[in-house]
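Entry type: protein chain
Record version: 2
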Amino acid sequence: MGMRFAATFMSALLAGTALAGAETITIATVNNGDMVRMQALSDHFAAGHPDIDVDWVILEENVLRQNVTTDIATDGGQYDVITIGQYEVPFWAERGWLQALDDLGDDYDIDDLLPAIRGGLSVDGTLYASPFYGESSMVMYRTDLMDAAGLEMPDAPTWQFIREAAEAMTDTENGIYGICLRGKPGWGENMAFMTAMSNSFGARWFDEDWRPQFDTDAWSDTLTFYIDLLTNFGPPGAANNGFNENLALFQTGRCGMWIDATVAASFVTNPENSEVADSVGFALAPDNGLGRRGNWLWAWSLAIPSSSDAPEAARAFIAWATGPAYLELVAENEGWANVPPGTRRSLYENPAYLEAAPFAEMTLRSMEVADPQNPTVDPVPYVGIQFVAIPEFQGLGTQVGQIFAAALAGQMSAEEALEEAQDLAVEEMEAAGYL
């Protein structure tokens, strides 16, 4: 009896010692569906890494960006893995805020990454963030409503066609709105959409001398068209809707069209979550015949802050979550249509994925036509399609987003909003030394 007690006590002691030796990593990520799925599947990571415990911090997009930026700029050390994109990587890596990801193991297969995605997450050829999923933006639309309206969506529509289709599909008595677009303020929310849209209208944030351009006809045309579209054919309260809000509206049959991230395609076509899964078509983001489409290029990616006290454990998690084997894991558990898209060549060469994902071809085409190095009709001194790759853009873009959201909500006219945005941008650029 005494020996059995001693053995039990020793086993408990050893277990406690092992538990005490486990290293904890804190992961900060966005509350998008693919990241929620990553958390749900992380038991598989835990099974292979019993010495690593994982704490999750899952936040709305604007809050995530604010918290992560504050933590990394102050060397806070709150997170070991952060979720960022092409906007942050160049500045943060150059400032020494990110750890290089130059060795994620042979199984990671870095050469399989799509060149545009890998390039946007690298500095001087070194990877500083590993893409979890890549995206452009495109038109997602209800094929049944389009047919009922007697229209046919082109593969490459114009903005004028989008307006005509939105008007034809709007049925407010039955709670169906012709179009849903981002209105929630934020540099990565409404301004991601509007900046990409403005490129196709011939607008730009700055001229070649860094002079803000909100006082131009091109920006007036962009904002006026956008407000007209959502005011007449969009859902009530559009100024409060971001990616997740519009996703919910589309999945419940409230939107005739939705122009947003290509990654949404797997959610709107999943019959478990979408009431319109069998009636969704896809097209390139619209243009105005000026040589630029209104789509963007982005990759939600995982990186390690220099302030992390568990970098090797963080590296192990990133290698697991963004490596080829993770795609196989999602396919096994959720089906090929639901694997994180837009990061690897091999996915778009995989017959099982191409068969399961009717949106795969349009996603790849959308990503291929996006050109961050030449985003606008007229020359600009910056790179980036839905953002301007300067450190000041995060604050400036969010402030302009608040102004434009106020105009969408009817609190000011488009002209007043553009005048306020111009004054603000000039003041900020002068203070930063650009002018």
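Comment: The longest helix spans residues 2-20.
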